[in-house]
Write a structure and sequence with these properties.
74 residues; alpha+beta; 4-stranded antiparallel β-sheet; disordered N terminus
Amino acid sequence: MLGKKILPGLLALYIILGSWQGYLAIYDRGAAEPKQIFPKEIASLPEQDQRDLIEGIIVRNDRDLQRKLEELLS
């Protein structure tokens, strides 16, 4: 609740780039199931990217999401 009271517009909305059954996926905040899955196996990515996706990469705006997806899908 801290983010909603102090910074309502900044922390209230974000998504997470992560892994679902070994594939790159996008999750809504707090969701157990992905809202979108990409045909990109995370095992094909560099080790650091794999670790980051397993932990979850928080993305706070469309520009950052687009940039990160371009990096991961290229």
